[in-house]
Amino acid sequence: MNKNGQQQLRDLPSVSVILDHMQSEVALWGHDAVTSATRAHLEELRAAIQSGESMTSDLSIIQQTIRERLTIASQPALKPVFNLTGIVLHSNLGRANLADAAIDAMCRVAGGANNLEFDLDKGQRGDRDSHIESLICELTGAEAATVVNNNAAAVLLTLNTLALGKKVPVSRGELVEIGGSFRVPDIMERSGCSLDEVGTTNRTHLKDYANAIDTDTALLMRVHTSNYRIEGFTNTVPESELATLAQANRIPFVVDMGCGNLIDLKSLGLPHEATVQQTLADGADLVLFSGDKLLGGPQAGIIAGRADLIARIKQNPLKRALRLDKVTLAALEATLQLYRNPDELVSRLPTLRLLTRAEDSVRDQVNKLAPKVSSLLGDQYRVDTASVSSQIGSGALPIEVLPSAALSITAANGEDEPLRELAAHLRRLPKPVIGRLHNGVLLLDLRCLEAIHEDAFIEQLSELTQ
Ligand SMILES: *Cc1c(COP(=O)(O)O)cnc(C)c1O
User: For ligand 1, is residue 184 a contact (CB within 6 Å)?
Assistant: First the structure.
């Protein structure tokens, strides 16, 4: 190190001098955090000077860098993103966007005491499920209901309660894996029952179930094959026939529906998906479904059906480990309330609002934004418009696609590298933009960009070129 370097080291302000000048930061982030950020930055400056670089000793510049460090460190790790993947219920991007009513309900109970487990009429301890049980029954026609952490928990709890140590016949065509960690055979094993495989991958008949049933059989289960479909030479047994068979053998018939749809999707121009009501009417003793798939609510699992079975499920000690917290219960109740007014449902529930968005409306938005995005991205990129297919997501109706429109971005030089770089930059924006890289094109499907977020989306793109 030369003389100049030694002088630079001596000129660096001390930790205490810097702290004296950063009292508002100390008040905001705390003494320890500011001290360690200061030490870390001084350490970097010293190391750079010792390796021959010329560094500033200007107090205000040093303060500014420390401030930036602290700001970055205090950013929440879990944050909102723009989901422009075209997958409406994206399991990696938080699934259903909650309705305003659900968000308000969460805020109402989050900050203070509430009657979560308190019966206001009787003035004594109450049941946390009571707040939404009657609502679920009203909407589905079920006798009783209970709610847990998610649908995987609903399956686990139901099997553990009703089939512990016993056999459960399931069609080989329904032994599905959903989202990597939920595999029907695995969850059955963990719930303490044994899987009794019946039929074949493509064809299962009523007699396959009938032959499998013996005194060790706890129940019959149908698993919705949510995320894949077997086509061609196939046979599945209608639920009404499975219900009759189960009843004849005095065992329950349980349907893991996955999605948990409560409305006639066809009337909204969407692909048909069985409703919870119909499945119960067809004779299911219990139906299990997710809160954050087609239902459009928070992460939850709903179990609805026969009162005697629900009572047993509620008494299982595992219920305590899998129960919902007050904030989720509030959101779920508010979401279900929206279903009482079908006329306003689509406009109030983001999941349905996004799924039913007309292709033309997305295309108009793409046409409007393409020139703006193009000028913000600069000469290095070309922005075109493309017809694409959105998906419902979360394994719901995987084969069915929704016609949509996207900004289609390519690198002016035709290479992949600038495109990957752009995708990475987009992910680093304050509100990261997540698109889909496909065959040398970055597609931003605007189906999920609602009008109120449009300006924010465009505004932060200008940060890309800074
Ligand atoms: C999605 C799904 C599950 C798991 O539901 P989560 O709410 O994600 O836990 C279970 N079964 C079926 C058939 C599903 O589609």
Answer: no
Nearest CA to ligand 1 atom 8: 151
The Cα–Cα gap between 246 and 228 comes to: 26
**Do the beta carbons of residue 447 and residue 402 sit within 8 Å?**
yes
Task: List C-alpha distances in Å: 235 to 88, 172, 184.
Answer: 30, 12, 20
Exposure of 168 by Cβ count < 10 A (0-12 exposed, 13-18 middle, 19+ buried)?
buried
Q: What is the 98 CA–ligand 1 centroid distance (Å)?
A: 18
Calculate how far, in angstroms, residue 207's C-alpha sits from the geometric centre of ligand 1. Answer: 28
Q: Which CATH class is domain 100-346?
A: alpha beta
pLDDT at 180: 65
pLDDT of residue 4: 85
Quote the pLDDT of residue 279. Answer: 97
Residue 399: per-residue pLDDT: 66
How many angstroms does the Cα of residue 151 sit away from the middle of ligand 1? Answer: 5
Phi, psi of 13 (to 5 degrees): -70, 155
Residue found by looking up tokens 């979560």 in the block? 116
> 226 CB under 6 A from ligand 1?
yes
CA neighbor of 96 nearest in space, from 255, 281, 283, 298: 298
Mutate to test the pocket of ligand 1, among 227, 290, 303 (most ligand atoms within 8 A of CB): 290
**Residue ranges in the chain modelled with pLDDT below 50:** none
Is the minimum distance from the CB of 187 to ligand 1 under 6 angstroms?
no
Residue 137 has which token pair?
């029954």
DSSP element (H, E) containing 60: helix 59-73
Distance separating alpha carbons of residues 58 and 56, to the nearest angstrom:
5
pLDDT of residue 170: 96
Q: Which residues belong to CATH 3.90.1150.110 in the chain?
A: 82-91+354-465
Write down the pLDDT at residue 260.
87
Q: Which amino acid is at 49?
A: I
Domain with CATH 3.40.640.10 in the chain: 100-346
**22 CB within 6 A, ligand 1:** no
Q: Tell me which residue of 463, 461, 465, 415 sits closest to 437, measured CA to CA.
A: 415
For ligand 1, is residue 151 a contact (CB within 6 Å)? yes
Count of CB atoms situated within 10 Å of the CB of 143: 15
Nearest atom in ligand 1 to the alpha carbon of residue 290 is 7
Query: Under CATH, which number does the domain 82-91+354-465 receive?
Result: 3.90.1150.110
- Of 175, 236, 256, which is best to mutate to test ligand 1, by the most ligand atoms within 8 angstroms of its C-beta? 256
Token look-up 């219990």 returns: 286
For ligand 1, whether the C-beta of 290 sits within 6 Å is yes
